[in-house]
Amino acid sequence: MLWLRFVSPKVAKSTRAQQTAKSLSVVLQYAAAISHTLLILFPIYWMVISSFKTSQELLLPVPTLWPNEFVFSNYPNVLQKAPFALYFFNTIVSTFFIMLGEVGLGTFAAYGFSKGRFAGKNVLFVLVLGALMIPLQVTFVPIYVLISRLNWMNTFAGLIVPSLVSAYFVFMLRQNFLAVDDSYLDAGKVDGMGRVGAIIHVLIPMCAPTMITVSIISFINGWNSYFWPKMITTNDARRTIAVGIVYLRETFAGMETSNYNEMMAGAVMSIIPIVLLFLFLQKYIMTGFSKAAMK
Predict the structure, then answer these.
(1) pTM of the predicted model, to two decimals?
(2) 195 domain residue, yes or no
(3) How many independent structural domains does the chain possess?
């Protein structure tokens, strides 16, 4: 700070104030980031730690942040009490086809709304935007009645078909496709590609970050879906992992007992695929989200 000796006291005081304000701003930013991270991670930490506790310890008046005694039997107990392998299979199948439908159908719908030329295009797109304004819960009852009349209860069709189309993904992809110049598609057609070929070989590669982002969001939403699978599954045949965890509580624990530790063990097992997905694809995930945000 020797250079401050050669400037006026007012300028030196102003400079010190600016440096103090800048340092305070950095401290506040770090404090906000750390507190926000802790708020997000603490429920996950609590879930993992609780999965190694006894049911008695979980019911203590003063919660413990670390198990008094690690109990590893909660995990095999869960696997014995409920068919978690079947729950995982049902969740993987339904999530995969939901993602395939939302991304595939959304891509072709977005192409029509962005590059297509047909009467009523704007009116139809307004209707799609209108669907975003309707709460999802409002549609559950009529869809449930339809699924019931089609005898799709406890079936993969009942789990998958109502979620095959996402208005949000159609909107997101359309906005991205509008940024692609038509000359690229015309060049593809000159090379002998049809519309489908131009979409697959030209449009999708150019919008790959957004496609990756949409696929990831769709997968996570499908994997974590609870309310709809809960409505249409009444037995283990097509029950998903999210519903299975709650079923573990409702079926194997009465009013006199508590098996929240086993529920936490089941919850830990249910997030393992999502964690592995992030670990293996984090490079593509971060690139996809950042480039999609720049659009």
Answers:
(1) 0.81
(2) yes
(3) 2
